[in-house]
Amino acid sequence: MSLLRRVAALISGATSGTTSGTTATPSPGPAGGASSRYAPEIDGEPDPGEVVWAWVPYEDDPSQGKDRPVLVLDTAGSGEADGWVGLMLSSQDHDRDAADEARHGRYWMDVGSGGWDSQGRPSEVRLDRLIHLERDGVRREGAALDARIFDEVVAAVRGLPG
């Protein structure tokens, strides 16, 4: 299965296998058909629409990374151990260099502030880098994103070029 199809399957929840560890792959763009539905629950388990904290590997050196907030889009499969897929958040402002970021295939969207950031800083979500989270890779729940913004993020992922 090609990487593009595998990532699309992860977003739609129709995969038969997963990778191990927290991994990051390019998101599928318009062919992905993201079918995520907003479903946060206060139950200690990550749900679509929630922002959780997890270890995210750096792109240029996957052996290193940092703990950061991740917006959960969907489960990563039908099995209980499959984990979740999501998109990383950043408090850095990428609006001023959006054209340069897009030139390098990086697309960001403002999502505002929320309980995931103790300092209340506004955040942006990176649309083109899908993060796979295993069950034991999630450190804590941060907060739920507003449902309208979650739907806008999913639509933006579908609308990516490529």
Short characterization:
By secondary structure, the protein is α+β, with helices and mostly antiparallel strands.
Q: How are the SSEs ordered, and which strands pair?
A:
Layout: H1 3-12, E1 23-26, E2 50-57, E3 65-75, E4 84-90, H2 98-103, E5 108-112, E6 123-133, E7 138-144, H3 147-158
Radius of gyration from CA coordinates:
14 Å
**Cα distance, first to last residue?**
18 Å
Q: Percent helix among the residues?
A: 10-25%
The helix-strand sequence is HEEEEHEEEH
What structural class is derived from the secondary structure elements? alpha+beta
Low-confidence parts = 1-20, 26-34
Molecular structure report:
- It is a single chain.
- This protein is α+β, with helices and mostly antiparallel strands and 162 residues long.
- It has a single domain, classed as SH3 type barrels.
- 17% of the residues lie in helices and 33% in strands.
- The protein is built from 3 helices and 7 strands, in the order αββββαβββα.
- It has helices spanning 3-12, 98-103, 147-158; strands spanning 23-26, 50-57, 65-75, 84-90, 108-112, 123-133, 138-144.
- Strands 1, 2, 3, 4, 5, 6 and 7 form a 7-stranded antiparallel beta sheet that branches.
- A hairpin with a 7-residue loop joins strand 2 and strand 3 (65-75).
- The longest helix is centred in the last third of the chain and has 12 residues, at 147-158.
- It is globular, with a radius of gyration of 14 Å.
